[in-house]
Amino acid sequence: MGKKKNQKQQPSASKDDLLNTLGDFTSKENWDSFFTIRGSDDSFEWYAEWPQLRDSLLPRIQQHPSPSSLSPSSSLRILVPGCGNSRLSEHLYDAGFGDITNIDFSKVVISGMLRRNVRDRPNMRWRVMDMTQMQFPDDTFNVVLDKGGLDALMEPELGPQLGTKYLSEVKRVLKSRGKFICLTLAESHVLGLLFPKFRFGWNVCLYAIPQKPSTKPDLQTFMVVAEKESSNELLQIISSFDHSSLACNPNQASGLLEALESENQIRGEYLSGSDVLYSLEDLQLGAKGDLQKLSPGHRVLLTLGEQGVSHFCYKAVLLDAKQQSGAFSFRCGVFIVPKTRSHEWLFSSEEGQWQVVESSKAARLIMVLLEASHANADMEDIQKDLSPLVKPLAPADNDKGNQIPFMTASDGIKQRSVVYQGSSSLTGPVVIEDVVYENTDDDVSHSLPFRRLIFERTEGLVQSEALLTRDGLFDKSVYGAEMKKASSSSKSKRRGALKRNNESSSKMKVYHGYLASSYHTAIISGFSLISSYLESVASSGNRVKAVVIGLGAGLLPMFLHGCMQSMQIEAVELDPVMLNLARDYFGFTEDKRMKVHIADGIQFVRDYRNLYAAGNEVLLSSNGSCKLSDAESRSTAIDIIIVDVDSSDSSSGLRCPAADFVEESFLQNVKDTLSEQGLFVINLVSRSPAIKDAVVSRMKEVFSHLFCIQLEGEVNLVLFGLCSESRIEEDCIPDAALKLDKLLKSEHPEISQSITDAAKKLKRLK
Description:
Elements: H1 13-19, H2 28-38, H3 50-62, H4 72-75, E1 78-81, H5 88-94, E2 100-104, H6 107-117, E3 125-128, E4 141-147, H7 149-153, H8 161-173, E5 174-184, H9 188-197, E6 202-208, E7 222-228, E8 238-239, H10 250-272, E9 277-279, H11 280-284, E10 299-304, E11 314-320, E12 330-337, H12 345-348, H13 350-360, E13 362-369, H14 379-390, E14 406-408, E15 413-424, E16 428-437, E17 449-455, E18 462-470, H15 476-483, E19 508-510, H16 518-525, H17 531-539, E20 544-549, H18 555-563, E21 567-573, H19 576-586, E22 594-598, H20 601-613, E23 618-620, E24 626-628, E25 638-643, H21 664-673, E26 674-685, H22 689-702, E27 705-710, E28 716-722, H23 733-743, H24 749-759, E29 763-764
Parallel strand pairs: 1-2, 1-4, 2-3, 4-5, 6-8, 9-10, 12-13, 12-14, 20-21, 20-25, 21-22, 25-26
Antiparallel strand pairs: 5-7, 6-7, 10-11, 11-13, 15-16, 16-17, 17-18, 18-19, 23-24, 26-28, 27-28, 27-29
């Protein structure tokens, strides 16, 4: 058996003709035809011939540990799978190894080989058998010798399914301290299956078989020897040759060396205790202890399923509850995380995963993280596919009569229609969708639609969310009941299964007088901390200057623009695509009191601070840069700076803002840019207490006083830094909130009341 035509060693034209009978190297019919034409007397050696193999192969077989009093022929049982009509087993027999069994699924070749050897080698056994479904008991052979069999099964177009089944059979039929000797061209896709299958409990060595003298580099044969150890120890793969002296085809050499280096790197990470993926097979071999026993605080990353065994492959995390003494609802459970939520800190970080375990009430939780390959699968089909895969992961004391329960992270979306799908070079893929949520409030007779802005780079995190009304107008008789419902937090709602609907009414438009996001409500409620200053500015006929870094859909600036007539708003947005989307899909507009600057927010503040610190008046240009103003420019002090941006890299656990916005240098520039009564507001999204504590600690170093609002049931923490040395006491905040309420010109008492109520949750961080 062998490889594809363009990878064969081809000594003669006659071989080329014969190879034309083979299209699929896994087809029994093709091999029958090949051996019928070839005949049994004329052997066909795909790879290195006996003179090249002998000196490398015989020592590997003879090194097998056996009683010294026994000769090789009486002590070793050798299996040659996919034997074909090669003379390899005949040479071994003649070298003294008399207990050899040859199998091939071609009846034609087995019949021919039996006739060829029945007289000279009467003890040699020949059986028609599929090497992927061997009919031998466990622990039967001391040596399994493969010459091209695995390579033939690993046709790239067919994937690893047959190779996986074959190697499982090899491992099953080998005795303890037995050896799998694989003669192979060592292509990367073959080694990519072979090396991982022989990790725990196997000692693997790699040898290069000498080539015939040749004028040009040819494909070389390599020998992988995997010895079945009595322990589950993990060892590095040892190669017996100088990597720099390989004289084979350069592509073959580079592919082999890359595969070897990659595998040894993975083994090194295993040995160092790094967070790496284990296979179920590794775990069943004891790679991370006894899988049948619960081990408090035990956490293992693993893969479930493989081609030919399940419909899909899955990445999963096995977690044993840290405290095993509590009352559990079940001994073992499965928690499925949709692709749209798998990147969230709660599910992607170790700290977050332990929070899920605690809330699940499971002694052992198997968290399965879905990926793009599962996008079109029904959740019921996913559960059916997973059921047999997770059963071996249940602890021994799990009630075998009970099904392992499945749980799923949901988003509560009843309807969804995509109104825009595109991409930006800065932000990446962007989706705008109209949704209707599940109605869980019996007092509300109908659910209203919302429009949401989503960045695919932060899947599961909704950037902006707005109420849709007919023509963007508000009819209290229609929408009044909905206004009484608790506002939702747009930067914590999650996406569900995607459904396209092109029937969205063009008359439904964004209504800017409603705050759909509770964190927007919290941001505005923090203005209560400087409400006396805001009142004095308004009464003097001047304008409060506010800078919002992060435009998004423009909903917060538009609400402020409509409710605070004395406010001049400057929005800073890095991505010009966002400005166009805000205009086209969220009704954002600019005027004398509303300007947008396409600029980097950190650089914008730094430039502004440098000019302001020099005592110059500042004029903001349309491209976000700062320059000296003319005599008509007003005062340069900024009264309010709001940072409301997401992080393009959430791997650190910080979803909002980007890490640069909470560095001390930026915070100091913000303070230097603000007026004496200025207010800095930042929306912080992280489930990590350690990250939150670090940000709070930095802000305390910079700002005179620090307040916060922790949104109930959400991960958002809104922080407020005050520049003024004088502080407002917490018991004075309700009165300050009432003063702010008078400044806000909201058309809806419900919105004003929600802002006032949020202000009462302000807490001073001492």
